[in-house]
C-alpha cells in the first residue's frame, strides 16, 4: 500500500471520521507492510529533485555527503521508531486531538495556522518544481538559484495554471488524489533510478573511486550558498522531517500501527528517497555543471540554475519531464489537502472544498516566487524549527510527566482552553535559539535539537509551577 492510500484513510478520519476524537480500535489496525510502501512513496517525490542538486551547491565533500546522509537518515528512523511510533501506539490519537488535550483548543488554533501556512509554502515549492518541467516546451526562462521574484510572464502563467489544476483536484477530495498517486509513485522511483544510471554514464563513471571523485574533497560553495560539512549534512538530514518525527505529526499515521516496531519502516523512505533519490538528483546536476553554459556562469561568479525539469529532461528526455511534473504533483496535492484541514480547524463553518481552494490559492501564490524552492534547504530547516518543539511537549509529558509530578492532558482535565506552560515553553525556546541562529550566524538546523530539548524541559518546569499554584488556590 502506498503513502496515498494509507493517508487517505488517516486524513479523512482526522477531518471528521469516526476516529477524530477517540483511539483507533483494534479492528482498524494495520500491519507494518502498509507503512513500508507508504514511506517509500512519500520520500521519493518533488522535494528530492531540488534537495539533491542543492547539496552540490554547498560544496560538500564525498565523505560528508555519502556518510553524513547515512548517519542523519538513521537518526531520523530512530526518532520515528522510539518517539513517534512509541507514543502513537500507546494512545492511538491524532496529533491534533493529542495536542488539544494538553494545550487547549485556543492554543491548538495557533498551531493549526502555522502548520497550514507552512504546508502551503512547501506545496508552493512543489508547484515551482512542476513548472520547471511544464515550461520546457515553451522555452521558458528557468528560475536562477538566487531568484526571489518571478522572472517572466510565461513563468507566472505556467505556475497559475498548474496551481489551479492541483488545487481543484485536491479540493475534490483525497480519494481522487490517492487514486492518481498510486500509479504515479512507482513511476517517480523508476525515474530517479534511471536518472542516476544515465547521469553516471554521462559522467563516464565506471568505478566507485570515480563516483567518489564527483564530490571529492569538496569545493567552495556557490554564490549565495553556505558551506556544508559533515555535521551540516547529518543534522540537516536528521531534521529534514523534524515536524513529522520529533514534531509528532506522524502520530496521526502510526496510531494505525499494530506495534511500535512499524516505526522501522520509515527506513524505506529515508534510504530509497532521502538517500538514493537525493544522490541521483545530485548526479543530474553534476552533469549539468560540466556543460559549457554552467561553466560560463561559474566563471562569471553566478550560480548555475537548479531547475529540476531541464535536469531530468537532459538525462532521460520526455520521461524526465513527466517524472518531474508527477513528483511535484504528488507532493503538492496531499500537502494542499493537509493545509486545508489545518485551516478548517480554524474556520469550521467553511466546507472542505473551499478551505482546500484557499490553501491552494496561498500555495500557488507562493509558487510564483522561486525562492521557496531555490532555498528549500533553508526553508525545510525553518519549517522543522518552528514545529518540532511542539512535539517535545508530547514527548516530555509521555516520558517524564509522571516522574515530574505534572498533570497528564492538563487542558482536558482542568477545562483550560489555553495552556500557558505550553505557550511560554515554545515561545522562549523558539525566541532564544532563533536569536542565536541569526545573531551568531549559526546554521539553523544546529539549533533545532537544543530548542526541542529546551522546550520540553521548560514545559515540565512551567507545568510543575502551574500545578503548585493550583494546589495553593
UniProtKB/TrEMBL annotation:
Transmembrane segments: 65-89, 110-134, 154-171, 183-203, 228-247, 268-288, 311-332, 353-373, 379-400, 421-440, 446-463
Keywords: Membrane, Transmembrane, Transmembrane helix
The keyword Transmembrane is assigned to this record: yes
InterPro entries for the chain: CodB (IPR030191)
Name of this protein: Purine-cytosine permease
Organism: Gramella jeungdoensis
Amino acid at each position: 500500500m502506498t503513502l496515498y492510500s494509507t493517508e487517505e484513510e488517516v486524513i479523512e478520519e482526522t477531518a471528521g471520521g469516526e476516529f477524530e476524537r477517540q483511539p483507533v480500535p483494534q479492528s482498524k489496525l494495520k500491519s507494518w507492510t502498509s507503512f513500508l510502501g507508504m514511506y517509500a512513496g512519500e520520500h521519493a517525490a518533488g522535494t528530492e529533485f531540488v534537495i539533491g542538486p542543492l547539496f552540490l551547491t554547498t560544496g560538500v565533500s564525498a565523505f560528508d555527503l555519502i556518510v553524513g546522509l547515512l548517519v542523519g537518515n538513521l537518526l531520523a528512523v530512530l526518532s520515528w521508531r522510539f518517539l513517534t511510533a512509541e507514543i502513537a501506539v500507546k494512545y492511538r490519537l491524532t496529533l491534533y486531538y493529542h495536542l488539544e488535550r494538553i494545550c487547549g483548543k485556543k492554543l491548538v488554533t495557533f498551531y493549526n495556522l502555522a502548520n497550514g501556512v507552512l504546508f502551503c509554502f512547501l506545496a508552493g515549492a512543489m508547484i515551482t518544481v512542476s513548472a520547471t518541467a511544464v515550461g520546457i516546451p515553451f522555452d521558458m526562462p528557468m528560475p536562477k538559484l538566487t531568484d526571489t521574484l518571478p522572472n517572466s510572464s510565461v513563468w507566472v502563467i505556467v505556475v497559475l495554471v498548474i496551481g489551479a489544476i492541483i488545487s481543484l483536484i485536491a479540493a475534490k477530495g483525497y480519494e481522487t488524489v490517492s487514486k492518481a498517486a498510486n500509479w504515479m509513485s512507482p513511476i517517480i522511483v523508476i525515474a530517479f533510478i534511471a536518472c542516476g544510471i544515465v547521469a553516471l554514464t554521462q559522467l563516464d563513471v565506471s568505478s566507485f573511486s570515480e563516483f567518489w571523485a564527483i564530490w571529492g574533497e569538496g569545493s567552495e560553495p556557490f554564490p549565495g550558498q553556505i558551506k556544508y560539512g559533515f555535521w551540516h549534512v547529518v543534522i540537516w538530514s536528521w531534521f529534514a522531517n523534524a515536524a513529522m518525527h520529533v514534531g509528532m505529526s506522524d502520530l496521526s499515521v502510526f496510531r494505525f500501527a499494530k506495534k511500535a516496531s512499524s516505526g522501522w519502516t520509515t527506513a524505506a523512505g529515508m534510504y530509497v528517497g532521502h538517500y538514493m533519490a537525493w544522490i541521483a538528483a545530485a548526479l543530474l546536476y553534476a552533469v549539468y555543471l560540466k556543460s559549457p553554459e554552467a561553466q560560463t556562469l561559474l566563471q562569471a561568479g553566478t550560480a548555475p540554475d537548479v531547475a529540476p525539469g531541464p535536469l531530468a529532461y537532459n538525462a532521460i528526455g520526455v520521461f524526465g519531464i513527466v517524472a518531474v511534473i508527477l513528483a511535484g504533483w504528488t507532493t503538492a496535492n496531499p500537502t494542499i489537502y493537509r493545509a486545508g484541514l489545518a485551516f478548517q480547524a480554524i474556520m469550521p463553518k467553511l466546507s472542505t472544498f473551499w478551505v482546500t481552494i484557499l490553501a491552494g490559492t496561498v500555495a500557488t501564490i507562493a509558487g510564483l516566487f522561486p525562492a521557496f524552492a531555490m532555498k528549500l534547504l533553508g526553508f525545510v530547516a525553518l519549517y522543522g524549527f518552528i514545529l518540532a518543539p511542539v512535539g517535545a511537549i508530547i514527548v516530555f509529558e509521555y516520558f517524564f510527566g509522571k516522574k515530574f509530578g505534572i498533570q497528564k492532558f492538563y487542558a482536558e482535565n482542568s477545562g483550560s482552553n489555553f495552556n500557558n506552560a505550553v505557550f511560554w515553553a515554545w515561545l522562549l525556546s523558539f525566541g532564544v535559539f532563533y536569536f542565536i541562529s541569526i545573531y551568531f550566524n549559526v546554521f539553523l538546523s544546529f539549533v533545532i535539537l537544543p530548542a526541542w530539548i529546551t522546550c520540553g524541559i521548560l514545559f515540565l518546569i512551567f507545568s510543575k509551577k502551574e500545578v503548585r499554584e493550583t494546589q495553593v488556590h
